[in-house]
Design a protein that fits this description.
Two copies of one chain form a homodimer.
Chain A lengths: L3 H10 L1 H6 L2 H17 L1 H17 L4 H7 L3 H16 L7 E6 L5 E8 L2 E6 L4 H12 L3 E5 L5 H17 L7 E3 L5 H7 L8 E5 L2 H10 L12 E5 L5 H13 L8 E7 L3 H13 L4 E4 L1 H6 L4 E2 L13 E7 L2 H11 L4 E5 L3 H10 L4 E6 L16 E3 L7 E3 L5 E12 L3
Parallel strand pairs in A: 3-4, 3-6, 4-5, 7-8, 7-12, 8-11, 9-10, 9-11, 12-13
Antiparallel strand pairs in A: 1-2, 2-16, 14-15
């Protein structure tokens, strides 16, 4: 079985080397890694074909097969992603705050890497290059545990990336892949507290839950999004249709898609038929409460559990409320603290919604689909945090950092 | 058994009320709580006497008994602590960043409470008032689980504080105490992920380890400090003696006390006798390696485990090194990432140490005892984080907050 502690020690052993790299050295290595990925396209595709063949035999679903599949264009995109990360500013070493105490102590708060980041993900080989790029740029060593269905693809990608590192004179162990596909290894990985500073799970709700429940390493929980759009009595109804249509149907399998509509009773009769007309184009199944069904008779009756479900499908739950307060209470009960939106022309109602809805991102008159590191202008994204500790919402490079206090004295002792 | 989910629901139910409080209302409530503590001194002392009696019967150690014991002065101090928290600025609602995207979306990053904070601590009743004050000021509901040995004291303190809240028209459930002393309840508390946003353990290394290992709620790990002072070859040796004397002996039972001295071989012969002379005054036991014992023949031989031990006692381990690099490597191997110090007159050596030692607080020519929220000027402290996620080092009010993004649009959808 894989010696995880040995991998941990190797990650620890490269910390100083990583810290010693200048911004230019890091960026050159990222560009070299991008080049190498493209040069080794043949090897990577051959490895991916092995994974695809096994996955087809095992009856993997078409959606999963599509995520696993690589082609020259997708490898090109991975390489492009690394080049983009090279273009982003380096925040490590930045002085975040500086203050002096009455006793003369000067205190500087300096941005530093987290140290060693562990990433647990499913059979999406593009995450391999992406996670490496983000962690490396922020001076972190990274240990990856990808889905076993993608093991050959991941090995080939990691080999290319490590080759580029070696070529640049950087210790290859800044990037390590756990090749053992045994589940016990994953569980041990989650307990490698001595060596791993933070663990980021990326993938399905089940994967994330398992990491949260089993890990003794601090975890950043990402992902699940049961996102709501609330159509207020003072909404511009055409805008509301446009926003819901986008949030529900532009891409259904993503965490920032809208899963539930909350509608004020005062507008349901005019609004719901308009909405249905638009969503019919994409054959969205509507599941509504009694008052929705008074207006839309062929709507499926919503059950309690519909309001708590992230469908990731062409399905939308609908709930009628009689007030803004009721809308906020409903959303705070069922949301996953990811992204929720109010559509209204009333600034007071909007501000109240923005204040009181407990979510990483709360929107006034815009689609929830904007919750994304690129759309926020971060230039990169390692995931979307749905917890409140450390980082909330889209996580870019800065969210992969910590800080240390450096304190400058001239012999001060405590009285 | 205590219905923890019901407590969780109650904590959730007061979030909006908490959020609706102005800075003035929060401060008035803190002052009312301080007044009430003083008014109920008699009841609190009577309850504390019950705990003390039981603890004496159970053979509690004198150190622990001292921590459990209350007297009018200590209740006065708790009240004073609440008044000091009232004096600190309110950071909730602050706009931390604001930016506009090319599509016209305006994004504001707003400081918000964490939500519901859980605190697990040992038999120190002063933590009860202190933790309430810090959490309340930052708009967090708090659920406390104190040591069972302090249960009567904690109940009396919580009753006084909740009485003051009620008097101010604030829902008492912003502060709840788990009264059940059954260990199974504590374990269930650590899994109350649905209701608790963060869990902060305060106490011994054993307590903290247990919380880290059992909790599915995000934890902020606080506390253990195996702090080092490194005396460089270019140190001002008198300053080094003064710093180590302070860091080792000013208060021995605290996490920022010095537990280990690392000395450059070039100065050991002149430095160690000076140091011993000073530490002899406090009868500090020295445990050193062979080269230390060449200079100090009656020094106890250090074993490997001495370098990893947080003594919290009048004991100091001593290690000789031949270079700054060796000192840094030794410290990074054995420290708990809390606080470490270099004593040197050489700015290059100092900067290298500050950069390369992996700890929350790294000192140049000052005592490690300054790692403390009050000494840093934060005005308050909920603990000292030894992890890198969320907060590192002394945690004041801001470290009890999170943020949310509020996004202002005019109908934007994602293309």
């Amino acid at each position: 079985m894989t010696d995880l502690k040995e991998m941990g020690r190797r990650a620890a052993s490269v910390k100083l080397a990583l810290q010693g790299l200048s911004e230019e050295e890091k960026n050159s290595a990222l560009l070299a890694a991008a080049k190498r990925l493209k040069e080794e396209t043949g090897e990577i595709l051959a490895a991916n074909e092995k994974d695809m063949e096994a996955a087809r035999k095992n009856g993997m679903s078409p959606g999963m097969l599509d995520r696993l599949r690589l082609d020259p264009g997708r490898i090109e995109s991975m390489a492009e992603g690394l080049c983009q990360i090279a273009d982003l500013p380096d925040c490590i070493g930045e002085c975040m705050e500086e203050f002096e105490r009455p006793n003369g102590l000067k205190i500087r708060k300096i941005r530093v890497p987290l140290g060693v980041v562990g990433i647990i993900y499913e059979a999406r080989p593009n995450v391999t290059a992406d996670a490496f790029g983000l962690c490396f740029k922020t001076g972190n060593a990274v240990i990856l545990k990808g889905g076993s269905d993608a093991i050959h693809s991941n090995k080939a990608i990691v080999q290319a990336l490590r080759g580029a590192l070696a070529q640049c004179g950087i210790p290859e162990d800044v990037l390590q892949l756990i090749c053992d596909t045994d589940r016990a290894v994953t569980v041990e990985f989650m307990k490698l507290k001595e060596y791993i500073d933070v663990l980021i799970p990326r993938g399905s709700a089940g994967l994330i839950r398992s990491v949260v429940e089993n890990s003794t390493v601090p975890v950043i929980e990402t992902g699940t999004g049961n996102c709501h759009v609330y159509v207020d009595k003072d909404a511009d109804l055409d805008m509301a249709v446009k926003i819901i249509f986008n949030a529900k149907t532009q891409r259904i399998g993503v965490c920032n898609a809208c899963e539930s509509l909350v509608v004020h009773s005062a507008v349901r009769e005019t609004f719901l038929p308009k909405l249905k007309e638009a969503l019919d184009e994409k054959k969205v199944e509507l599941r509504g409460d009694g008052r929705v069904r008074e207006v839309l008779p062929d709507c499926v009756p919503a059950r309690e559990e519909d309001y708590g479900t992230e469908y990731l499908d062409y399905i939308l739950s609908l709930k009628t409320v009689d007030s803004l307060e009721e809308a906020i209470a409903h959303i705070n009960r069922y949301n996953t603290k990811h992204s929720d939106c109010i559509v209204t022309e009333n600034p007071e109602a909007a501000q109240r919604f923005l204040n009181q809805v407990d979510a990483a991102c709360v929107y006034w008159n815009a689609s929830t689909r904007f919750t994304d590191g690129f759309e926020f202008g971060f230039g990169a994204e390692i995931g979307i945090s749905t917890q409140k500790l450390h980082a909330r919402g889209p996580m870019g490079l800065k969210e992969l950092t910590s800080y240390k206090y450096t304190i400058f004295g001239n012999g001060q002792v405590r009285g």
